[in-house]
Amino acid sequence: MKKIAVMTSGGDAPGMNAAIRAVVRSGLHYGLEVYGIKYGYKGLCDGDITLLERNDVSRIIKSGGTILGSARFPEFKDIEVRKKAVEQLDKIGIEAIVVIGGDGSYRGAQALTNMGIKCIGLPGTIDNDISSTDYTIGFQTALQTIVDSIDKLRDTSMSHQRCSVVEVMGRNCGDLALYAGIAGGSEFIITPETGFDKQRTLDAINNSFSSGRKHAIVVVTEHMLNVIDLAKDIEEYTGYETRATILGHVQRGGDPSAFDRVMATEMGEYAVELLYNGKGGKAVGLKNMDYVDYDIEYALNKKREIPNKRYGLVGRLK
Questions:
Q1: d(Cα 223, Cα 178) in Å, to the nearest integer?
Q2: Which residues fall within 8 angstroms of residue 63, CB to CB, at 6 or more apart?
Q3: What is the CA radius of gyration of the chain?
Q4: Tell me, what DSSP letter sits at residue 257?
Q5: Packing angle between helix 175-183 and helix 139-160, nearest 10 degrees?
Q6: 73 backbone φψ class: left, alpha, beta (φ>0; ψ -120 to 50)
Q7: 216-221 β-sheet, strand order
Q8: 127 classed as catalytic
Q9: Which of 32-36, 96-100, 112-116, 212-216 has the least mean pLDDT?
């Protein structure tokens, strides 16, 4: 193997640049040419591929976002589109790709592996929704952004004896809401894992205020419900002033935390080592603070473990 590439795909996540840097410099260490694919699978199909040297990744380890850009490209599901992508790689002689992204990116990597291109997946998503790893690149940074916001909201909630409903990202995974709820001392969390029973939630919040509590924070995973409507319902049901806050894409930005930088760097090097040893079709993960690799297919299909005790912690301590 002489030439490899690296790409970022799907939603951006803090720490992606650290992973890119590690792939480039580790690849150069092993005597490989390393190319950067711009804007994910779309850029791959368009042939937007450039050679990366050591200085091209200088001073990016501390930066959020991704220097390679990213894009969602559902057309990649089409076999004819993927054939075009392989043709672009063949023109340059690229034999393998490190794909940094979420489950959609992993599916693309699996498809390319089946077409003869060795791919390694790195879990780059703030949602922490890849079951084959304890943590994904960007999760810790996004979590800290959310906790900082909740801390600020609690100040004003306490001042005004108010309930604050906070919507966070996570898509189909409640980890951001769960961890932020615990770290921020929130009284209630609503996630895909807990489900949502409107009347039960209203009763719980009403009981909380009736017992003498003067404020409350409710953390909700996105796409589960309309938080503005919930805030209105809470105010009508309890009589307490309630406000809704949607944190939105601010959660994706910012300089990566030290944890994300270190993890992304070590994962990037691990990925290159796998390729150098002739392995492809693998997904890198962090399990019990040790780096592991699984078949991408296994990583995509592994059932997610729900930390029931951790979910109960919020209710026990409110």
A1: 15
A2: 17, 255, 256
A3: 22
A4: P
A5: 50
A6: beta
A7: 188-190, 216-221, 163-168, 242-246
A8: yes
A9: 212-216
User: How many CA atoms lie within 13 Å of 249's alpha carbon, on the beta-carbon side?
Assistant: 4
Total Cβ atoms within 10 A of residue 66: 26
Round to whole Å and give the CA distance between 227 and 166. Answer: 8
Q: How far, in Å, CA of 191 to CA of 301, rounded?
A: 21
Distances in whole angstroms, Cα of residue 79 to Cα of each of 46, 90, 92: 15, 16, 21
Rounded-to-integer distance, Cα 200 and Cα 249, Å: 30
Q: What is the spatial distance between Cα 186 and Cα 180, in angstroms, rounded to a whole number? A: 8
For the chain, helix, strand, coil in percent to 5 are 45, 20, 35
| Set 46, 48, 56, 127: catalytic member | 127
274 token code pair: 């796998």
Average pLDDT over residues 204-227: 94
**Taking the complete model, does pTM exceed 0.90, yes or no?**
yes
**Which phi and psi (to 5°) does residue 49 adopt?**
-130, 135
Nearest to 122 by CA among 290, 288, 282: 282
* DSSP string for residues in 71-107: ---GGGGSHHHHHHHHHHHHHHT--EEEEEESHHHHH
**Six-digit token string for 154:** 């609690």
